[in-house]
């Protein structure tokens, strides 16, 4: 397939997404199944174009004066790919499988449209209904934060210190040109390009459990929990086990981690991952009907970690289609889930123990506001300062990311070069 044919195919996929509200990966898979002549490199090129258009959907549509799939693609070629009008026109020749030639209006817009006077949500490429919430979270920096969330994310890896050091991992993956992450002492970063990223799951270092795919912000969230060898830890929303594995490594396989999730299906990948990582201090507590599988942990845990279900607004670099599928009703549901989880978690924290609340959200409602409501209802809990949190984790430089809206630490692509994460560690008073 030619580059022009890739553009046509991407417009087809965007048209499918406009008609059916579903993940872009599903639409791309269906397109590939119905166009089997397209090779893997062709499919990767089309996916790159689709995701670029989704990253820049608001600004691309503003530039072109239309939200039609073709307009989104043309605008993204300018905004995301930086192509000149002539380069875009060359792709749109109308010959063979190329898109139809540019109209006079399309050419004029590509030549003259500017974003300087556009609203923040356009310049930041996020949904208009979230504009007030981004203003509340970021103030005058809302557009910049949104734009950073619309950029491509690097590939971050967490070194499994149960099996090797960061220096050893750097050596084993030298052919991928990794670099140490700026803040996590156990992270590696492979910068993103425009093409397909490295097939890390096929790397020997991954297969043998020396490294795990994990954004630096997620690594830092686990490190801020400051889990110590010998502690009793409950991972209340363990899911596939990413943070469970990180906590097990911090604890050097000493003490006990109880991995639980309200949906047992989400726990299924954890068993194979635990074996690969060599994590031996994890007990999986899957739900069993109406049985209280955590009853024996009441008031016994040194640390209860909540990796809370959230809108995922902080992870838009990796899932750009998710921001356009997000609806206000989903936020309301997540807020309810978070309140319930915080109330549930308090039951298991022993006197003097810690509750770590983590989200990959940029919104105050899911972060500082939830912690403030919990503290108001639970006067025996109190948050340390951001500086104290960072110091306890041995990461004093993270104090600079103290939230301006209340307790906790905020990370974001614009400030820390990571996904958007919120972390607050709350301590229960000794009796």
- Low-confidence segments, ≥5 residues, pLDDT <50? none
The end-to-end span amounts to 70 Å
CATH third-level topology of the largest domain: Rossmann fold
Which structural class is indicated by helix and strand composition? alpha/beta
Count of distinct structural domains: 3
Q: Shape, please?
A: globular
Task: Please write out the topology.
Elements: H1 3-19, H2 24-34, H3 40-55, H4 57-64, H5 69-79, H6 85-91, H7 104-112, H8 120-123, H9 131-138, H10 142-149, E1 155-159, H11 166-172, E2 179-180, E3 187-190, H12 204-207, E4 211-213, H13 216-224, E5 232-235, H14 242-250, E6 256-260, H15 270-277, E7 282-285, E8 301-307, H16 322-325, H17 328-346, E9 349-359, H18 368-377, E10 381-382, H19 386-392, E11 409-411, H20 413-416, E12 421-428
Parallel strand pairs: 5-6, 5-8, 6-7, 8-9
Antiparallel strand pairs: 1-3, 1-4, 2-3, 9-12, 10-12, 11-12
Helix pairs in contact: 1-2, 1-3, 1-5, 2-3, 3-5, 4-5, 9-10, 13-14
